[in-house]
Amino acid sequence: MGDSIPSRPISSHLQPQENNMPHTPAADAVIKKTDGTLTHPAMGQPQVQNYLIKLVNANSHASFKQALNDVFNGKGKSTGNYQQDNLPVFHASSGDGQQSVTLFYLMAGTLATIFAMGEHVAGNSYKVTYYGQPTGSFVTGAKITL
Q1: Is residue 67 domain-resident?
Q2: Does residue 57 fall inside a structural domain?
Q3: pLDDT tens for each residue of 15-43
Q4: Sign of the C-alpha dihedral computed for residues 62, 67, 72 and 73 taken in this order
Q5: How many structural domains does the chain have?
Q6: Are 136 and 84 within 8 A, CB to CB?
Q7: Model pTM?
Q8: Which of 20, 69, 90, 107 has the fewest CB atoms found within 10 Å of its own CB?
């Protein structure tokens, strides 16, 4: 995958965004993998889609694409008081029931860091199903209630 992903510089001085709506649209994203490492270099939306879509059930591909659109269009929402790496968390969700996909991510300038993916359960509840982090609130299987 690394050869097909164009290189984009990541500024080390970007400040995290407050967990307000709407956030600045993402120009690029990195994926924080389950082992805590980050993909490098940063990727545009098509590359992120190609990287993550293989984790999602085929019947949820349209919902995944819409949730990812929301990340890159600045339409993500606050995830309340939840934090990851001491930063406020945003989420973007699309679909319902077994076809829903929710992306959990951080924003720093125009760089999104996607670190967990799950689904909308009901009302204001989500479950980290597709992938999460090894510790903290966003481990695989965790229920997130706003």
Answers
A1: yes
A2: yes
A3: 555 555 568 999 999 999 999 999 999 99
A4: positive
A5: 1
A6: yes
A7: 0.86
A8: 20
* Beta strand 111-122 pairing with 28-31: parallel
90, two tokens = 């945003």
Q: Based on DSSP, count helices (H) and strands (E) in the chain, helices before strands.
A: 2, 7
Per the CB < 8 A criterion, the answer to whether 106 and 87 are in contact is yes
**Mean predicted lDDT score pLDDT of the chain:** 87
Residue type, position 34, single letter? T
Domain range holding 30?
25-145
From 134, 64, 72, select the one nearest 101 (Cα to Cα): 64
56 Cβ neighbours under 8 A, 6+ residues apart:
64, 101, 117, 130
In a domain? residue 56: yes
Q: Is 10 inside a domain boundary?
A: no
